[in-house]
Structure formats: C-alpha cells, structure tokens
C-alpha cells in the first residue's frame, strides 16, 4: 500500500489551477443518461469516483471516453437499467442514477449505495421524492427496484432536509415527468446550480437552483449538450488551508471565490490575508493561525461540512481555541484520532469538537479514514514539525486529482512512496 511521505514546515508559494468539481460532475455525468446522443463534459477531474461513474455508464450500455479533462458520453445505446452491487458500493453518489434511469428507462434496480463512512447515509428523502412523483419503489433481495408508475406526473415536493443528493435526484426524475414539479426546501449548493445549467443546455425547462425552491417543467425530450464543469470549491479550500498551515503565499485559480465565502472568512479571522478576483483567490499566511469564533457546519451558504476536517487540521497546529459543531453528518470526526497522533489537542463531545491550538503539530504515521479526513491529515502534515506518513490513499484519490503533485508544485516536500 503506498503512502504520502511529507516533511512539514516548508512555506508554500506559487499558483495552482483547481480541477473540476467532483460533486458537480458526478450528477452531470448521470444526467447524460437523459438523452440519446453524445454529450461532451469539459474540466472533468480524473478521480476514482469519476472512473467508477464512467464504469457504471459503460455497464448500462453507454459509450464513455476520456481525453484529458474532456469526457464524452454517448447514451444512445443505453440498454440496461440495473447497477450491480459491486459498482454501487464504490460510492454513495451512485444513488444519483435512480432519478436519471427512471426518467430515461422508466425503471431501475440498484443496491443500497456505499461510499464514505460518515455515519448513517439514509436515502429516505430520495425515495419519498420519487414516490411522490409517481414512481413505484420496493426492495427485493437487498436491491432497490424502481419503476415508473401509471401516473408519473410533476407535483410539489417538499424536502425536510436540504439534501444535495435528494435535490439532484428529484431534478433528474422531474425532467422525465410531464408537468410542473416544484422542489421546496431544495439544497442551494453551487453544484446544484451547475447541474441546472447543464440540464438547461440539454433543453430542460428548470429554474430556481441556488434558491430553496426549484421549478422543473418536465416531459419534453432532451438533447445532448457540451458543458464546462465548475471548479472544485472543496479542493480549493484544501490547498488554501494547506498554505494557511504551512505559511507562505499561494494563488488558486479556476474556482469562483463566492462559492467558498464561509471558508475564506474563517481563514481571514484566523490571521490569513486574502485577495480575490473573479476566478482567483490569493492567500498569504505568515504568523501562526489564531483561534476563531465557533465553526458550525450548515447547508450552503453556511460553512461546508466537507471543509470541516480540513480547516480543523490547519487550526490544530495554530494558537488559540476554536469550537467546531458538525451539524450535517452524525460522525464526521474520524480524523480527530489521527490528528491527535500528531499532537493535536481536540476534545469531542457529540457534534461538538473543541480544538486547542498547540503551536505546532509534529509528524507521525497516520491513516486516512475518509476522503476529507485524509486531505486534512495532509494539511496538518504540511505545517507540522518533522516527517508524516499518510496511508490509505484510496480515500483521497476519490476526490483529489494529484494532491501530492499539486502541493509539491507549491513548494511542499511531499511524495508518494509505493
Ligand atoms: C453531498 O452528499 C456531497 N456528495 C457530500 O460530499 C457533502 O458532504 C454533502 O452533499 C453535504 O453537502 C456529493 O455531492 C457526491 P446530503 P449527500 O444528502 O448528497 C441526511 C465529499 O466529501 N440525509 O446533503 O449524500 C444525511 O444523512 C462528500 O465530497 C437523510 O437523512 O449529502 C446527512 O446527514 C461527502 N436522508 C444530511 O442529510 C436522505 O435521504 C445531508 O446529506 C438524504 C440525506
């Protein structure tokens, strides 16, 4: 098993272009199923979650080819609607195929999704939304079977939690439902806006993404489209927190600063200097990071849960105390034990975690527990004294393209040891 070998304490400098957003491209690739013909997706990151999604598309009968960061998907020959267990287990976001297959094929069968272990990952909101649209859904030998009911029609859906995945599934299913569907209580993440823009490019009549209420006029046939995926705001937050922890000055391009405002304001409060342009963020950090007011994760535009571990890792090696409250997932502190091995002082009580900066972490042998927890260990290692080994890199590869190479390009002493 390979691992990252990181010598901490070297300030970072330079500029980095951020790859396309994992959490945007996955639903967009599923949306390619909605129409026969060839869609072209640019700025598609090379991640294991993306490869898994392309494998599912191929298994369903589509052609899916990658040429650098451009992926073409031809869904003309879509002929299957069941996704085998081994592919579903690879990642939770494969549940997004539910709405897309229901729209295009009128039926689907998939096993319960796998993915990061972030506590229970129910899909009750996905299923109730699709049932309200008229889908018949039942369980058969551990697989989820779903088919278009007799009266598949648009209607008002109300989400009790602004679930990103449930919002996306409802959008994709509604495209195949004649009539108007409104989604009240929808997630407002930028990735939802990106999906809306792609669906519009396919000819869908859809409005409201980025607000709590979406409107989809479904039932009309759609056509393939060409699209450029937005930059990955969580990857950007990762490189910025790495620079904040290690010190120095870095410029991140290819991401809209307004998509990570909550993270940028925390870094500013911690003592970093930030300058932003339309498509660029420059961060400078020269003194130890300071404690900041409580960080409470929340649905967008609140502080993103995906950046919780990453910011915690940077602050753990600073000075002063910061309270974190993880309100989105039940157990998203699996990285804490690993940070403690590096000398971090973090007290967890339920959803709360009190981080007391220890001035400087020290290197240790640590292992990734999940995607963002693994990235957090790299961030911590960059600012730590001495050498750190980060193992279980498969978690990191799910959501980061060339994390080590990119940090090395910014001056970090990090390499992958086979
Ligand atoms: C998406 O996951 C992202 N994944 C996650 O990013 C992100 O952390 C999350 O949204 C929140 O922003 C992708 O987009 C592929 P949710 P998703 O449905 O859709 C509960 C990463 O690191 N819930 O918004 O699965 C759920 O348990 C990943 O890139 C239900 O109760 O998240 C959670 O507590 C990790 N019932 C909360 O809602 C449901 O039917 C938010 O989950 C669905 C969700």
Question: What does the model show?
Answer:
- The structure is a single chain.
- This protein is an alpha/beta fold.
- Helix content is 32%, strand content 27%.
- The protein has 14 helices and 24 strands.
- The chain has helices spanning 22-31, 48-59, 85-90, 97-105, 124-132, 164-175, 190-201, 233-246, 261-269, 308-316, 336-341, 371-383, 394-397, 403-409; strands at residues 3-7, 12-17, 38-42, 63-67, 70-74, 82-83, 107-111, 135-140, 143-148, 156-158, 179-184, 205-207, 213-218, 226-228, 248-253, 273-277, 280-285, 295-296, 321-325, 345-349, 352-356, 365-367, 387-391, 413-417.
- The strands form 6 sheets. Strands 22-23-1-24 form a 4-stranded mixed sheet. The chain has a 4-stranded mixed sheet with strand order 2-15-17-16. A 4-stranded mixed sheet has the order 4-5-3-14, with helices on one face.
- Strand 18 (295-296), helix 10 and strand 19 form a beta-alpha-beta unit.
- The longest helix has 14 residues, at 233-246.
- The chain is elongated and about 65 Å long.
- The relative contact order is 0.16.
- The protein binds ligand EPZ.
- Ligand EPZ binds at residues 22-23, 26, 92-93, 116, 121-126, 161, 163-166, 187, 305-306, 328-329, 371-372, 399.
Give the helix/strand layout.
Layout: E1 3-7, E2 12-17, H1 22-31, E3 38-42, H2 48-59, E4 63-67, E5 70-74, E6 82-83, H3 85-90, H4 97-105, E7 107-111, H5 124-132, E8 135-140, E9 143-148, E10 156-158, H6 164-175, E11 179-184, H7 190-201, E12 205-207, E13 213-218, E14 226-228, H8 233-246, E15 248-253, H9 261-269, E16 273-277, E17 280-285, E18 295-296, H10 308-316, E19 321-325, H11 336-341, E20 345-349, E21 352-356, E22 365-367, H12 371-383, E23 387-391, H13 394-397, H14 403-409, E24 413-417
Parallel strand pairs: 2-15, 3-14, 6-7, 10-11, 18-19, 22-23
Antiparallel strand pairs: 1-23, 1-24, 3-5, 4-5, 7-9, 8-9, 11-13, 12-13, 15-17, 16-17, 19-21, 20-21
Helix pairs in contact: 1-2, 1-7, 4-6, 5-6, 8-10, 8-12, 10-12
Bound molecules: ligand EPZ.
Ligand EPZ binds at residues 22-23, 26, 92-93, 116, 121-126, 161, 163-166, 187, 305-306, 328-329, 371-372, 399.
